[in-house]
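Moderator note: this is an archived Q&A kept for reference. The question asked for a predicted structure of one protein chain; the sequence and the answer are reproduced below.
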Amino acid sequence: MEALTVAGRTEVLITDTLPSRLLPERPDRRRVAVLTQPGATHVALGVADTLRSQGLNVEVIGLPDRDEAKSLDVAESVYETLAKFGLGRHDAVVGVGGGSVTDLAGYVAATWLRGVEVVHVPTTLLGAVDASIGGKTGVNLAGKNLVGVFWHPTRVLVDLSILAALPPSLLREGMAEVLKAGLIGDRDLFELLRSRGNDADLREVVRRSVAVKARIVDEDERETGVRAHLNFGHTIGHAIEFASPLSHGESVALGTVAAARISEKLLGFGHADGVESAIEKFGLPVEIGGLDHNRVHDLLRLDKKRDSQGLRMVLLKNIGEPLVEHVDRADVEVGLSAIGL
């Protein structure tokens, strides 16, 4: 078992199997609500059984799959269930599933009774290395993650046996976030991914990715500075995700290609070809067609990193040297053209 601490308050445990003691010690906890999604129900039921065996009253709440879970309507339905269940201020919410579940579970925990404990058991690679860590929660409204709060989990349990059993498609999706971690903060991780692709050692991939995110969140918990670097590939990626049927990982892969090409133009980034070949090696898309060009630009106008001077994007001067730069429409067109838009 390996343990890392994020922002001084989240214990991230990387294990070969879930431990018997899932929650941090606290004698006044009585009830636990376990939020999950269809593909993770079997894990959630095992978590619920373990918690019940320790004397806790447990309610399992099913959520829709993927981003269908991330809405205010779904959050409201969960609140109603929590009210009937009697979840109190000393109780806990546990999110078991992918990034959409941990985002929604964190948001619900942060806003129920003005904040209750949340613990995450990510069951996708994307959730394990990114979404479950760092305290960002949110739901979608008009754009991606426009409603949310910062609320850190007390513990994140990353079970490598669960990740190793994932379908190849879900592992590929997570590799988009792993690649991002390498590009912004770990050259050795980038080189490992470029050479090994999906055959890279899973434990090393998870450990190094979590370490990058932990280091950045420790330095800038509330995203007033360097934490914005974690959005590399996400500006255009989020717009594509909202405007298309593609998954988060597939959309971020496309956003990464676009950001690399804009970085090449504006900052002389010399590894755009290597980024694209790494993404192809994962089996993720590097081009997309059939999207409404203007719709993508409209969504970019809702991006959270926009300020009074216009759209800001995370770009790369070199591997491990991210910068936040203002970009104009012509710059964005370079990225969109690179991915076939």
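Archived answer notes: The chain has two domains: 2-164, 168-338.
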